[in-house]
Specification:
Elements lengths: L1 H4 L9 H23 L2 E2 L8 H5 L1 H8 L15 H18 L4 E6 L6 H11 L6 H5 L3 H10 L1 H20 L8 E10 L5 E9 L10 H11 L11 H7 L31 E3 L10 H17 L8 H8 L3 H9 L6 E3 L14 H7 L3 E5 L3 H12 L4 H16 L4 H15 L4 H8 L5 E3 L16 E2 L2
Antiparallel strand pairs: 1-9, 2-4, 2-7, 3-4, 3-8, 5-6
Length: about 450
């Protein structure tokens, strides 16, 4: 930590050194955890004596448990670690109820002049002026960012801490923040971003309050509208960061063109739409066919068109009532559709205050139900690397079938993780400096409810 934080930046700027230190640290942590895991066992009601434990075969029988995968649960960044984390999050959902908002905060290092100025002083030993930063090429900015990933990672961590100070303050953009939970994830390009669940007090609940009150609250904190350049030039420029551009992640795990459902259908006003009722299900085929017509028109509009909502309805040859039914035919649960013009079909939902403060892409979504909170959002916030999880489980199964000892099983799974994990320089920095990968307003304790003879204990 001292080497990476000291004024002499030569060690911190050596990316190979960062990865080497990370691997050494992870190997040490794995050896420590494996040593403890080998001593975990259950007695299954047996009365253990000193004589029984002197026999090595008895000890091996006691500790021959399926721990080869789960021993990684305390190693930050592994799939078992995030699996354990999801249980803490479910505990918060059970205690506090569903979160009010789901928020994502991204990094935009190339658009942060203050960070580029810091990197200029650290990397080039030069104080860049605002004018010099403004005319920098994208390649020059990337060179500065890649030269010192430690400074970039520490800066993002500091930014998130300050953002939550803002959210918790009386001037917070969402009102009174009661509880929160956030997790840091790393994008394909290596930069971190933050997924957060916010529990707000004194706001209308979707399950209890009138729908009109809920919609008014949503309109007061979330929008997808693009302001006119002459009205608010700064915000209009930042909203350009909110445009959704399809990438390989859009097709991950789905046959649809975009799993985030972009482009979004225009709406004359914000509404919470329900799936079609049983009475309306008779015409579901015609409604689905109408939706295909709408969707084709949306795809032809590319990034949106400057036409009115009425003109859009005329283009698809539908009344507003039939248009709403066409949208509802695609739903499986209650869904919020924001007020949106045909020019805004690719703009991600945001909060203006949050966007101005973060100066990077933000995403704000209302959470309508406990089920959605538990099944989708909680699993999204606590997801691990999917391929890595399958790899480790396969390695654990193969090691067990070979009749390996516990120590050999741990070594097999540990090596599989270390040799296949994919991390960026900034993620390596988070691991080395022990910057928080998750944080919450509540601490969670585990209460063991197993029968005494089935409880795990350590052999001394």
């Amino acid at each position: 930590k001292a080497e990476l934080r000291q004024q002499d930046r030569r060690v911190a700027q050596d990316v190979d050194n960062l990865f080497f230190k990370t691997k050494k640290l992870q190997m040490k942590q794995m050896l420590d955890k494996a040593t403890i895991a080998v001593r975990k066992c259950t007695s299954h009601g047996l009365q253990l004596t000193a004589g029984a434990l002197k026999n090595s075969s008895n000890v091996n029988r006691l500790v021959h448990r399926d721990l080869a995968y789960k021993f990684l649960s305390t190693l930050r960044g592994t799939p078992p670690y995030f699996q354990r984390m999801s249980k803490d999050l479910y505990a918060m959902c059970r205690t506090l109820g569903p979160a009010t908002l789901f928020v994502t905060l991204s990094a935009a290092e190339t658009r942060w002049p203050h960070l580029l100025r810091i990197l200029g002083e650290v990397v080039d030993k030069k104080t860049y002026t605002d004018e010099e930063i403004a005319i920098m090429t994208w390649q020059e900015k990337c060179r500065l960012i890649q030269s010192d990933p430690v400074t970039c990672a520490r800066h993002f961590d500091y930014t998130i801490q300050q953002m939550f100070k803002l959210l918790k303050s009386d001037q917070g953009p969402f009102g009174k923040l009661k509880d929160f939970y956030y997790r840091i994830e790393f994008q394909q390009r290596g930069s971190p971003h933050c997924h957060a669940m916010l529990w707000l007090s004194e706001v209308p609940s979707f399950n209890d309050a009138p729908t009109e009150n809920v919609i008014n609250f949503i309109d007061s904190v979330i929008t997808c509208q693009k302001p006119h350049q002459d009205e608010d030039e700064e915000l209009a420029d930042l909203v350009n960061l909110q445009y959704h551009r399809h990438s390989h992640t859009c097709r991950k795990g789905t046959n649809f063109a975009c799993r985030f459902n972009f482009p979004k259908p225009p709406m004359s006003a914000t509404a919470i739409l329900e799936p079609l009722t049983l009475e309306e299900a008779d015409n579901v085929k015609s409604h689905k066919a109408a939706w295909l017509t709408v969707h084709k028109r949306l795809l032809l509009m590319k990034m949106g068109e400057n036409i009115s909502f009425e003109q859009f309805l005329a283009d698809v040859n539908m009344s507003e009532a039939n248009y709403i039914k066409a949208i509802r035919s695609t739903l499986n649960t209650s869904t919020v559709f924001l007020k949106r013009s045909p020019a805004e079909i690719k703009i991600n939902s945001y909060n203006a205050t949050l966007l101005l403060a973060m100066r990077a892409n933000v995403d704000v979504q209302p959470v309508l139900s406990t089920y959605a909170c538990a099944t989708y959002i909680a699993s999204y916030v606590s997801k691990g690397q999917r391929g890595m999880s399958q790899l480790l489980r396969k390695a654990a199964e193969e090691a067990k079938q070979d009749g390996s000892t516990m120590q050999e099983q741990f070594r097999t799974v540990g090596n599989s993780f270390l040799n296949a994990v994919e991390i960026s320089a900034q993620e390596a920095t988070y691991l080395l400096l022990q910057l928080p990968l998750r944080q919450s307003s509540r601490s969670v304790i585990f209460v063991n409810t197993s029968l005494p003879e089935n409880r795990v204990f350590l052999l001394k």
